[in-house]
Amino acid sequence: DADVTQTPRNRITKTGKRIMLECSQTKGHDRMYWYRQDPGLGLQLIYYSFDVKDINKGEISDGYSVSRQAQAKFSLSLESAIPNQTALYFCATSGRSSTDTQYFGPGTRLTVL
Amino acid sequence: AQSVSQHNHHVILSEAASLELGCNYSYGGTVNLFWYVQYPGQHLQLLLKYFSGDPLVKGIKGFEAEFIKSKFSFNLRKPSVQWSDTAEYFCAVKGYSTLTFGKGTMLLVSP
Fold first, then answer.
1. Which residue of A lies nearest to B4 if distances are taken between CA atoms?
2. Please, which residues have CB within 8 angstroms of residue B12's CB and are 6 or more apart in sequence?
3. Integer CA distances (angstroms), B109 to A46, A98, B19, in order
4. Which residue of B has its CA nearest to A37?
5. Which residues on neighbouring strands pair with residue B25, listed in sequence order?
6. Which one, of B25, B20, B98, B41, lies nearest residue A88 by Cα?
7. Partners of A103 in the beta sheet?
8. pLDDT digits (tens, 9 = 90+) for A29-54
């Protein structure tokens, strides 16, 4: 969905490097999420933000940090990348209602060597 | 805490066969249930969702799902699959605030 964009789309890095993945949305949603996808494991929630001042840890936040720079921007950082953080990372957004759909970005494929 | 279990990791069907993918959830309160699809190389897209009302929900591309509260299930169905339905399918449950996904079912439809 072009309303949710992620940069970069692909990234190869080395162990110990700091990496930032960026997400922008034009849907006007308050809520934003970061997931990682590993084969056979589905999607696991890393962090989520219900507004600019509300950031929460998800299931697997260790080794990650986030920044909500504006309503439309939500960045994920790997402070010191390690090989088991090699995965597909998705950003998503949604409205405030519990029935609202989450809309996903195209994903960032990250490889840590 | 909420959880989701998808019964099959891989399903292989021939075109025109009927499809049913199992999904069971665990959550003590009011749930909202979703099926997402991920076509090869693409991001997740919503197929359908249930939050109240008619337990039989119709989605895009001929898919439907039935919410059975007594069985904590939300199975996905399609009467006749096409090659273009080859994808990974994710069931998800939303409780108070966040979505929890199942591990996914990879569907391969052979022509």
1. A42
2. B107, B108, B109, B110
3. 32, 34, 10
4. B103
5. B4
6. B41
7. A93
8. 999 999 999 988 889 999 999 999 99
